Amino acid sequence: MDLGIAGRKAIVCAASQGLGRACALALAREGVLVVINARRPEPLARTAEEIRRETGAQVTPVACDITTEEGRAAALAACPEPDILVNNAGGPPPGDFRNWSREDWIRALDANMLTPIFLIKAVIDGMCGRKFGRIVNITSGAVKSPIPTLGLSNGARAGLTGFVAGLARQVAQHNVTINNLLPGPFLTERLRANSRAAAEKAGRPVDEIIAERARSSPAGRVGDPAEFGAACAFLCATSSGYIVGQNFLLDGGAFNATMG
Ligand code: NAP
Description:
The protein is an alpha/beta fold.
């Protein structure tokens, strides 16, 4: 299926590995010129080279912390007029809300709510003027089904979701769409790290913890990041202009509901 976006320009945030990388790779496969970002320069440069080699697309790495003003300015300087923006950043740590300070909350809000909002603010009027824009926010299944230990994530991402629900309906007339992708468990470094922590706590092998998560899903497995990337690219397709302000859960059916 030709998504009709060859030659378009994209910024994909937090993309040296995991879900961000998968989105960048899927877009590059469609012939999109991608600017990818992460904090650590070496893994980012490696990923850029791998995507270039695999797809032949132009891939520009910008090493910076996307949750800072300077970081966002650097990403935007490399791609001032993106047609596609994929918002992503690391997730907040787990814990008990009784122990979280104002600073902990501000960090989570900065990363998972305000950073996407400021990037959207920087690009959306240009997208509206050019009559094409696709914005995809990577949020979390926790937006629909809160994870008790991830209160910072539940709260910050719900704030972003509420904000973009309103904005998406103000820009859709210009062929600019904003949608959210809500990952359930996908086999990335973050899932491995979280499972390692759980394995150590329980004194069990990490593979067992991951297998347990896989069994708890109707799909009987955890997600493959490539599946997530493909969904992201689909939302960015020329023909996806009527998909507006939606929250797509990719969790193998784990959220039990008759309707979304
Ligand atoms: P991951 O494998 O840990 O990858 C995170 C990526 O983000 C890395 O490339 C990392 O590179 C980059 N990054 C982190 N903080 C950044 C920052 N401040 N500025 C720029 N880049 C940054 O994580 P993932 O599993 O792909 O998860 C991506 C997002 O989806 C996270 O917010 C996560 O909470 C959420 N999520 C994931 C799952 C899952 O099962 N995987 C489920 C629900 C929600 P550097 O460290 O070099 O910056």
